[in-house]
Amino acid sequence: MLTIENINFYQNDILIKNHDLEIKGGLISSIKPSIKDNKESERIVVPGFIDLQIYGAGGRLFSAEPTVESLTIMEDDLLRRGTTGFLACMATNTPEVFNECIKAAKEHRTIAKNCLGLHLEGPFLNPKRLGAHIPEFVRKASLDEIKALLDFGDGVIKMMTIAPELQDDEVIEYLLNNGVVVSLGHSNATFQQATEAYNKGIQTTTHLFNAMSPIHHREPGIPTAVFNHNKAMASIIVDNQHVSFEVVKFSQKLLKERMFLITDAVTECSSGPYQHKLIGDKYVMPDGTLSGSSLTMLKAVKNCVEHCDITLIDALKMATEYPAKLIGSDQIFGKIGVGMEANLLVLDEALNIKQTIFKGNSLSN
Fold first, then answer.
1. Stretch 305-328: mean pLDDT
2. How far apart are CA 329 and CA 179, in angstroms?
């Protein structure tokens, strides 16, 4: 049994102070007022972070080195940084590279820790909104290809970013019926096309404002479609490079529980089609195109609080509860309560990670 003494935590948006949290068998077994220390604690326990879009960590870019070892290195590095659940992301690439990544993920899942599966960002995107993606690999999906892809994936493909305006309805319907979270992204959809896609069941939007039709006063575009919809969610990269902090600020006010954080993080890579170079605090391709971020989930949370007028509890939900709910894992991740799996972070008053607890085990940071 593991006991975390004299901590604070959020419950129903209220900060509960000076409690002891007991963990047994990997689950939170009890939460009760602390009796050992009357001194008011500055430490706060929060759920571990969930990142649904990350390309690399620990010096490994998964698509460049698609191996079980790469996923294991990414897992260990991300656990140290407080991410207790993530989807390894693959950018538009050749079928051979996709198959290698999927094969590695299937082999890895027998020993997987915090890797929850794969997010395929492409290749079924709009050539007009590619960002850093490679145009030669982009194509329209066929139903047979999607069926073969999911069959080969055998359950490891959890999320897919597509440009719905270029895909047949039967493709979208098949993905949704087979439990894949479908995200609208790298898309030039009009306001009407995006709204129709969300009404058909597409649940979310990939990195809001990036690689999509913009807001214009006569052509409202994808962001306005997300804002106006009653269910559609959106991920966002809060690094002030991909999206201005001021834009994050008003987007959160509009979307509330429908907006969640991703890092979209990459790592240095000098081989293969996606060669990322770190310049300052951003990554670029060899031609200077902005690529993935250098964010961590903790830094994204801090940016929300320090620069975007987002409360700590809301920022934490954007990094935990909301993405967990999207992928149907909110009974395991994203909340603190008796009976929940103990995937937790202990933060100090400056929001630095002092302790990571994963499946009930305390890890050194």
1. 97
2. 13
Catalytic annotation present for 264: yes
pTM score, whole prediction: 0.96
pLDDT tens by residue, 198-226:
999 999 999 999 999 999 999 999 999 99
> Whose CA is closest to 181, among 128, 129, 125, 117?
117
DSSP 92: S
- Selecting among 51, 239, 264, 314, the annotated active-site residue is 264
Q: Quick one: pLDDT at residue 249?
A: 98
Determine contact, residues 287/271, Cβ cutoff 8 Å: no
Helix (H, G, I), strand (E, B) or coil at 283: strand
Return the pLDDT at 63.
Answer: 93
Strands 290-293 and 234-236 turn out to be unpaired
- Check whether the bond before 123 is cis (ω within 30° of 0): yes
Please tell me the chain's helix, strand, coil percentages from 3-state DSSP, rounded to the nearest 5: 30, 30, 40
- Roughly what angle, to the nearest 10 degrees, separates helices 245-255 and 221-228? 30
How far is it, in rounded angstroms, from Cα 209 to Cα 222?
8
What does the CA dihedral 203, 206, 209, 215 come to, rounded to 10 degrees?
A: -30
C-alpha span between 5 and 22 (Å, rounded): 8
Domains of the chain: 2-46+334-363 (2.30.40.10), 49-326 (3.20.20.140)
CA 5, distance to chain mean position in Å, is 30
CA atoms within 13 A on the CB side of 109: 16
37 has a pLDDT exceeding 80: no
